C-alpha cells in the first residue's frame, strides 16, 4: 500500500524520476558490454567504452545484503531527523535482475523481517516538506509480501 503524496518533488535531479508517484531509478547501460550503471555516467568502468544509453532501472529486485543504520549519517547529505528524533533504519543492496545492485534505504528496520533474497519493490519515501509545502521525496525499497503488496 502506497500513501498518495500530494505534491512530490524529487530530492535530487537526475537520480530518479517519479512515475505516477512511484520512483524509477535512472541508470545507464553500456552499448558495448551491457554493463549497467547507477547513477548515470559516461564512460563504462568495465570496458572503458564511451557509448552509453539512458535506461530506467527495474522497480523490483531481491535483497542482496542489508544492515541497520543505528546512528544518524553525516549531514549533509543526510536530511532526516537527528538526535532524539532519529530512528534506526534499514539499508541494503537490492539486486535488480539483469542490471545491477543498488544501495538504498529500506522501509523495514526490523532484522526479523529482513531476509537476504527476499523480493523488494521501490517506493517513494518522504524526507520532509520544503518551503513551498511540497513533499520532498526520495526512494526506498520495501519488502514485497506473499500476496504481492508492499508490507
Ligand atoms: Zn562497457
Question: What labels describe this entry?
Answer:
151 residues, mainly beta, 6-stranded mixed sheet, binds zinc ion
In angstroms, what is the radius of gyration? 16 Å
Strand order of the largest sheet: 1-10-9-6-7-8
Supply the number of structural domains: 1
Percent of sequence in beta strands: 35-45%
Bound heterogens, unique: zinc ion
Give me the number of helical elements: 0
Distance between the termini: 7 Å
Q: Could you state the order of secondary-structure elements as H and E?
A: EEEEEEEEEE
Uncertain segments of ≥5 residues (pLDDT<50)?
A: none
Helix content: under 10%
Mean pLDDT equals 90
Largest sheet: 6 strands, mixed
| Structural shape | globular
Instruction: Give the class from helix and strand content and strand pairing.
Output: mainly beta
Would you count the extended β strands for me?
Answer: 10
How would you portray this structure in words?
It is a single chain. This protein is mainly beta and 151 residues long. It has one domain (8-143). Helix content is 0%, strand content 44%. The strands form two sheets. Strands 1-10-9-6-7-8 form a six-stranded mixed β-sheet, with no helix packed on it. Strands 2, 3, 4 and 5 form a four-stranded antiparallel β-sheet that branches. A hairpin with a 2-residue loop joins strand 2 (16-19) and strand 3. The radius of gyration is 16 Å and the shape is globular. The N and C termini lie close together (7 Å). Residues 30, 32-33, 35, 44, 46-47, 49 line the site of zinc ion.
